[in-house]
Amino acid sequence: MVGAYKDMKFDKTPYGGFYTQNDIKEVVAYASKKFVTIIPEIEMPGHSQALLAAYPQLGCNPDKIYEVATKWGVSEDVLCPREETFTVMQDILTEVMALFPGQYIHIGGDECPKKQWKESRFCQDLIKKLKLKDEHELQSYFIGRIDKFITSKGKKMLGWDEILEGGLSPNAMVMSWRGTAGGIEAAKLNHDVVMSPNNFFYLDYYQADPKTQPLAIGGNLPLSKCYSFEPDLPELTEAEAKHIVGVQANLWTEYIGTPAYAEYMTFPRALALAEIGWSPKRPKNYVAFSDRVKKHIPVMDALKINYCNVDLK
Q1: Do residues 95 and 74 make contact, with C-beta atoms less than 8 angstroms apart?
Q2: What is the pLDDT of residues 167-194, one digit of tens each?
Q3: What is the DSSP code (8-state) at residue 295?
Q4: Which ranges constitute the DSSP H helices of the chain?
């Protein structure tokens, strides 16, 4: 895609590829030397159009010709909760778990439209058979099956906050991206949570006036707003707050085609995330924080990091 999403212009150049197992092992080993654990995300039951293009029998309409997507966003083509689907996903997860030695496996679970499930005789019969209330509980059933499998392998399952819809799986850990409500709900249910609210931690959002910045997805997230987030939320009791185990910034790369641009969108906002994650709760003082950030400028310059200096002047 070239330019803004609304323009729907493309350069007509095919792209893609894959990681070999040796590639993955190399990346995991390198990250480990930097004290970083890589967590793989194998998306299901939504965001699976590429999988369905290769294996149409995993969808609700096996006769449908699924196309590989040419634009990003939410697709109505989702996995069907058949036994064959669970077998394939378990096989994929088994291969993935052998390559990533970390404790967590992320299964996505977000942005799964229910239209095809509502129109599927198999899904509707399964809802009746399992005595489920609706398609949201069918998604909970799907996620619960995967949660049980991942747990049986000694791993912990992570999912976006949509996995709360229809009931949360027993061992699930939640990443709250649609604000903080999902994280609060999960913590009250005694589930661990990573806070990643899009209005504070989506680093693909603009960090200054869009007229002065390279093309991005939209939004408005200056350094000051990033820094203002407090994960120790007043809605939670002391015991519930212990389930907020961390914060995460997301740098989605639909518009980010180079390492230099990735650095530009990451720094200095990553410094706000770091201070929030590694500091006790205390009153925020952005002026003092800004002074601390400025002391990092010589370091970033020495490392040749292509940081955004809008808020550092």
Answers
A1: no
A2: 999 999 999 999 999 999 999 999 999 9
A3: T
A4: 21-33, 49-54, 83-99, 115-118, 121-129, 135-152, 181-188, 198-201, 223-227, 238-241, 259-266, 269-278, 286-294, 297-302
Q: How would residue 2 be classed by pLDDT, with cut points 50, 70 and 90?
A: confident
pLDDT of residue 12: 87
Say how far apart CA 123 and CA 126 lie, in whole Å.
5
Q: Tokens at residue 98, please?
A: 């052998």
Give me the residues paired with residue 195 across strands: 176, 247
Sequence-distant (6+) residues with CB within 8 A of 49 are 66, 67, 68, 69, 75, 77
Q: Is the pTM value of this prediction over 0.90?
A: yes
Q: How far is CA 224 from the centre of its chain?
A: 23
Q: CA–CA separation, 255 vs 141, rounded Å? A: 35
Residues 272-300 pLDDT 10s: 999 999 998 888 999 999 999 999 999 99
Please tell me the predicted confidence (pLDDT) of residue 229.
Answer: 95
Q: How many CB atoms lie within 10 A of CB 128?
A: 9
| C-alpha separations of 74 from 83, 111, 219, 227, 309 in Å | 24, 6, 18, 30, 34
Give pLDDT, residue 312.
Answer: 78
Output the CA torsion 295→232→172→185 (10° steps): -140
CATH assignment of 5-257, among 3.40.50.1820, 1.10.760.10, 3.20.20.80, 3.30.565.10: 3.20.20.80
The C-alpha atoms of residue 93 and residue 201 are separated, in whole angstroms, by 28
Distance of CA 78 to the CA centre of its chain: 17
Terminal C-alpha separation, the chain:
34
pLDDT interval class at 313 (50, 70, 90):
low
Q: Are 85 and 79 in contact (CB under 8 A)?
A: yes
Bridge partners, 8 (sequence order)? none
CA-based nearest residue to 269, from 219, 225, 299:
225
